[in-house]
Give the backbone structure.
Amino acid sequence: MSTIQTASSFARAMQDVEARYSAANPKSGARYREACEVMPGGNTRIAIYYSPFPLTIARGEGAYLWDIDGHRYTDFMNDMSAGLFGHSNPVIAAAVRTAVDDGLTLGAPNQYDVELAGVLAERFPSIELVRFCNSGTEANLFALALARAVTGRQKVLGFRGGYHGGVFADPGSAFALNAPLLVGAPYNDIEGTLEVIEREAHDLAAIVVEPMMGSAGCIPAKPEFLQALRDASRKHDIILVFDEVMTSRLSPGGLQAALGIVPDMTTMGKYIGGGLTFGAFGGRHDLMERLDPRRSDMLSLGGTFNNSVTTMAAGLAAMTQVLTPEANRTLNRRGDDLRRRMNAAGAQRGLPVQVTGVGSLMNVHFQHSPIEAPSDVVPGNKRIVDLLHLELLLEGQYIARRGYISLSLALTSADVDGFVAAFERFLDRHSAVIQDVVGPDGA
Ligand SMILES: Cc1ncc(COP(=O)(O)O)c(C=O)c1O
């Protein structure tokens, strides 16, 4: 197929779906135009922007969302994993109501923070002491600052294409505050990474790694790669930080417990606050104790909302009464099954579908060639995911624009069956376009 034909078959399909989407969502379209008057590009969070305009969601209940034009969606995005409990878990809602009734912004230790810290220390093998904060970004900023302070070294080794929050994005980004300190290494490449570590070790305070890259497309780290990081960091006294902001949900004790590889520190965020603003970092006693205010050499670290009473109450209820270890395992089994069914749907049709991920987090890609690092994702094929996204929205199935799927406890088997059926209809409707864009070898 020539490039011109390829471009036009895709462009026609995209034009058509955008026209149907715009016609179906006049109120969201108007709202987006209003938003552009007061927010840059109408947006306040890049992950929720997509063209031609994002839907404005009026409300959520259980596993479902309703937009302002009145359509209902089954939510397979769940706020990029923060919505693990669905939109109206009664146990969490009751805990938040009690906390609200007992007064907001108390500005003191409260009735929930110690217990929530205890739950995290009990579940996650690396966590002996923990500090709360307000987001995954903050958790990484604080953990890495602590690593620098403790080691007296300056640099941090991160992986090309990884994501640790707005200020750690692509080192070329204007917002990558730490860019001069982040040394890029190749993910899942043991030899390439060890070379960088050996070269930089004298000034490396920390290595920060996602045990499965989330934003880059749900790319799991190979266990032997993580083990090599563990061994090299020990050898050179570098602090190994697992960014489990996304992956802590992938077993009751996070990916670290599932893989049996224990880092020195762990950063967390997203769902642990029961759906409210949350961040935390924790780890080895001898590192974290530097934050102890009783020490004369303590490292001072504040944060007005670090133990926000609503977040602590919601998080404690969520992690003890709702996301029990058994509920966690069931959710991840359901994700493994969904991924298998979507891959089978592609294989049955001879289409280059590759749904990557672990348990309840996954990402749709359209290519056959293996994806072990962000650079393996064929950039031109990503536009098929744009088409998939809008077609699924028109079917009442809500996923992230980049093809990311994150399950919630509120989803039923019938919801999952409905999603797989909608995905199969997409493959049947657009098989020619997919083959045109990807090319005959399905690379
Ligand atoms: C692995 C990882 N680290 C850090 C962050 C940043 O978390 P937050 O958006 O809460 O600042 C994210 C967010 O998606 C993430 O996926």
